[in-house]
Amino acid sequence: MTFPATVLTRARAAARPQVTGSVTGAMGLTLSVDGIRAAVGDLVEVNPGERPLLAEVVAVGRDRLTCMPLGTLSGVHAGAPVRATGMPLQVPVGEALLGRVLDGLGRPVDGGPPLGSRVSFVDLSSETPHALTRTRVEEPLTFGVRALDTLVPCGKGQRLGIFAGSGVGKSSLLAQITRGTDADVRVIGLIGERGREVREFLEENLGAEGMARTVVVVATSDEPPLVRLKAAFVATRIAEAFRDEGRDVLLLMDSITRTAMAQREVGLSAGEPPATRGYPPSVFAMMPQLLEKAGTGVTGSITGLYTVLVEGDDHNEPIADTARSILDGHIVLTRKLATVGHFPAIDVLESISRVATAVVPPAQMADAREVRRLMGALRDVRELIEIGAYQAGSDPLVDRARALAPTIEAFLQQPMGESTPAEEAWGWLQRIVRSA
Ligand SMILES: Nc1ncnc2c1ncn2[C@@H]1O[C@H](COP(=O)(O)OP(=O)(O)O)[C@@H](O)[C@H]1O
Ligand SMILES: [Mg+2]
Which segment of 196-200, 222-226, 237-241 scores lowest on mean pLDDT? Predict the structure, then answer.
């Protein structure tokens, strides 16, 4: 008889003699601990008992461990007892998580029943499916958002970035997608947002309808950086477990920028040098590690949507740049549209999906291309039109685009609470193209 690795890890941990070490110092984000042995990545408990402070071993010396806390260090004094747990962080996975809200370490925070035996626990580390065993992205995954499903179509297993400044509607769009998507399971990671924003997102944007078939993992901005960083991996690990059961999962991460900032804090406090614009090298190692976990597997898929903050509309900031190079497409939200009340504020012409032709039949692709061509023609002469320098009749394509502009606008704008099945959106798009 064979046992799963985690059962063995837990049994071994339980059978270990209980040795207690002690805290010898705490500085910045790190704790040094003497008197116990543990491996890098293992958890230790400071002040074991009722409410221990968990810390992760990040470096080991001959007889000293360097640990990083998964909680606040205040109140920890030199000499405080420390116990080795003998294993790394264990993450709950499984069907029973649907509808639940978890903290960055995978513990329920929604006041619901304990997870108990209805979930299984796994390590965070998982094998990223090898590129050659992954199936190709060739089936569409729909979001119920017209502008995206037709003009920036997404495939099962694709990873898309949502690039936007703050307050232009990222969270609202993620909620709209969560409610409208045809994915079997949705996993949302809310990383580094303020507590108030999280409440608003869960209660107003997502609502009960959005929570069904959804797991939410939250680490707000006031959590220690390591917890925020873990939360992104915990959400991803939960998605991986569903994928490995053959499910089509939609993983929504808000935001990858805040996750990178958490890694920066962790890296700098562990003594790494700042390299690119204040970000240490580990940030650029972490991003592909995290993002490559999404995608198709041997069975099932994780479609990843990652928001990227572009403050001051600096689209070349290093995190945005790195994200763009790893992802298979991007959705750009612009303040220009948001300020005139055009929601979702998607800049269609600046957004691309690299799998569009693989997931959309040629006839529909032709319609989409035509609408993009009309929008492009109009964009090119917008300034001329605004100053009254464009003469009707000088370009038939522009004239057609101007005539259709209100119809296209109506198609692209979609109220928060509205979801349009993809079939209907394609029919609508076809009518626009065939009219006039
Ligand atoms: N689809 C929409 N319809 C109407 N208003 C919207 C829509 N999406 C966003 N908004 C407006 O934009 C504001 C900011 O949206 P939010 O999703 O919180 O932005 P972000 O997450 O990018 O900071 C909302 O409070 C709302 O007023
Ligand atoms: Mg937001």
Answer: 196-200
Burial 413-428 (b: 16+ CB within 10 A, else e): bbeeeebbebeebbee
Task: Return the minimum-mean-pLDDT range out of 30-34, 74-78, 343-347.
Answer: 74-78
- Tokens matching residue 423: 């079939």
Closest CA to 84 of 28, 24, 43: 43
Distance 344 CA to ligand 2 centre (A): 13
Each residue's pLDDT tens digit, 358-382: 899 999 999 999 999 999 988 888 8
The residue nearest atom 5 of ligand 1, judged by CA position, is 343
Instruction: Give all domains of the chain, ordered by start, each with its CATH number.
Output: 17-88 (2.40.10.170), 93-360 (3.40.50.12240), 364-434 (1.20.1270.330)
Yes or no: say if 79 and 11 are a contact pair by the CB < 8 Å rule: no
- Residue found by looking up tokens 């984000």 in the block: 29
- Write down the pTM of the prediction: 0.90
Tokens 């221990």: give the residue: 52
Give the CA radius of gyration of the chain: 24
> Which atom of ligand 1 approaches the CA of 201 most closely?
18
Interval between CA 12 and ligand 1 midpoint (Å): 50
Distance between CA atoms of 341 and 339, rounded to whole angstroms? 5
What does the alpha-carbon distance between residue 60 and residue 62 come to, in Å, rounded to a whole number? 7
Using CB atoms within 10 A of its CB, is residue 110 exposed (0-12), middle (13-18) or buried (19+)? Answer: middle
